Amino acid sequence: MLPTFEGLECRLAFSIPIWHKAIDAKYLRSLVAGSLKKNLWETVKDLGPEFASLLRSGFSSNLRFKLHVLSRDGEYLASREIPSTHKPGASFEIDLTKLIAELGLVPQDYLIVAVMSHGRMDAYRSSPGSFSMTYVDQDNVAIYRTGAFARPLNEGRLKSHVGFTGINPKILATKDFVSSLMLLNHSSDPDYAHAVRPSSVLIREDGEQLKGDFGEIPPLGAREMSVVDLFGADVFDFLKPFGGRGTTVTTCVGVTLASLHLQRSNDNRRTILGIEHSRPAHMNLMGIMQH
Amino acid sequence: MSSDLKISEALERGYPPAVLYLRNDDVVVTEVCAFNYFSIFLKEQQDAEAHIWFFDAEGRCVNYLQKDLGFNGQLQLRTSDLCPDVSGTVAMTLLPKQGASVRPGKKVTTGYYTQYYSRCGAITLSHEREAVAAKPFPTPAWMQTYLTRFVEVSGVILVNACLAPDGEAFGTARLRALDGTVLGERSLPSIPSMGARRISTMDLFPDATRLIGSAETFALEFSGGNMASPFSFYQFANGKFSLHHF
């Protein structure tokens, strides 16, 4: 799920690396290894849709793309299937702002669900590449890129999640800049129906904290909250002794969320100066021996 | 320059630092941002220490910083205070203070971010890229699209993430049309171990405008060895610098 912003030229791209193959030895090995950890019924449920899509594509390494447009509240609005196929070495690129107009939707913030004809559900359900979102403002370009992972997300029958912990040590609240967090309540299940209500704390260097309620995010919806929305206008004074800098830790039990960090200008335009997806910090600890 | 922890020791302990691009010059300054996530996820070992190495474009280690990060400790480090006028590579590792055993054959990589402040008032940011490698490694083909109308202010940043003395980064750049057609191909300049290069598209492919023609978008592809995944950039005439990992 990828956000668009009203008033910006929003473009989506996906470049298919030349090495991409729908099936190779490493992939088959990881499928066998993964299947040995599950019973037969789990394996069928997990891999059935993937093998079906591979069969339908004739095991082709070419990819097709389909885009769904959702409101920020997660309401389905429209779809567009891209008729052409894209081979390894090629790139898929589309102006989403034009697409939204072509679909007869009014200019406002939306979410795009980008679906590929098949992915790679190998060892880490890895992505064959990254979706690239480019936001062009009148005097700024901001881009982020994130993997197109073929993973079950918030899909109870396939995967249960302990919870989400998002850490953003890049928080700014100064006369020039205001940081935002955007959380996306995504799922691989089109019938996903679970609203979430994360909470955030803002921590400054001396350990003092402010607490904030992120508000409800509808299923398949998204919500952007600035640090002013979350912690009030006093956030500027709170962080001032530390150069306007701090860290947010945002948590939500029982679900996984996608998370974007935005840096906006602190003026009436609130220009998106920079945007980046967050990294799941607990993944950095996977190699540690737990006692 | 002496350091409390050598980068090779961090690798041996299973905590390889991860690399990012470092840029401190008249246009841009770099801030390194991190949080002691051990204090959230490892209840028994909540204190950590950050070790940061700074390399110039030729891969010479020009500075080093160690900082203790206690419970909920954080770091927003203006690197231009430590190494003004240095552009190259930054590498950072977060270690639990008491040391935590790493599973055999595993490594614990470090998550952190850099923010790049253009002096004209823009910010761009990136999370960490690959972990530093002790031995030479292959770099698979990485490809991303660029907007043709910005071709003359666009380019790529390549960071060498190999510590081995013979780990010069090398490779090939390809200019591709959206349908995958190779419009141009050339060898990349070699980059010394732990060094970095910022190269404009027009320096790589002086004929890019003609080769791309009327297409709205083009792609650049990079492959070779000892390079971390690349960064694309646009640097506009007003000094705004916009960087993004592939």
Q: Can you put this structure into words, describing what you see?
A:
The complex is a heterodimer of chains A (291) and B (246). Chain A is α+β, with helices and mostly antiparallel strands and 291 residues long. Chain A is 16% helix and 37% strand. Chain A has helices at 25-36, 40-56, 96-102, 227-231, 235-239; strands at 2-4, 9-15, 65-71, 76-81, 91-95, 110-116, 130-137, 140-147, 163-172, 177-184, 199-203, 209-213, 222-226, 245-253, 258-265, 272-277. The two termini of chain A are 37 Å apart. By secondary structure, chain B is mainly β. In chain B, 8% of the residues lie in helices and 45% in strands. Chain B is built from four helices and 16 strands. Chain B has helices at 7-12, 38-41, 201-204, 208-212; strands at residues 18-23, 28-35, 48-56, 61-69, 74-78, 87-96, 113-118, 123-127, 138-147, 154-159, 170-176, 182-187, 196-200, 217-225, 231-235, 241-245. In chain B, the strands form four sheets. In chain B, strands 1-6-3-4 form a four-stranded antiparallel sheet, with no helix packed on it. A four-stranded antiparallel sheet of chain B has the order 5-2-7-8, with no helix packed on it. Chain B has a four-stranded antiparallel sheet with strand order 9-14-11-12. At the A-B interface, strand 2, strand 5, strand 7, strand 8 and strand 9 of A face strand 2, helix 2, strand 5, strand 8 and strand 9 of B.
Structural key phrases:
heterodimer; A: alpha+beta; 4-stranded antiparallel beta sheet; 5 helices; 16 strands; globular; B: mainly beta; 45% strand
Order of helices and strands of chain B: HEEHEEEEEEEEEEEHHEEE
Global geometry of chain A:
globular
**Subunit organisation of the chains:** heterodimer
Helical content of chain B (DSSP H or I, runs of 4+):
under 10%
Strand content of chain B: over 45%
Number of helices of chain B: 4
Radius of gyration of chain A (Å): 20 Å
Strand order of the largest sheet of chain A: 1-6-3-4
Distance between the termini of chain A: 37 Å
Structural class of chain B: mainly beta
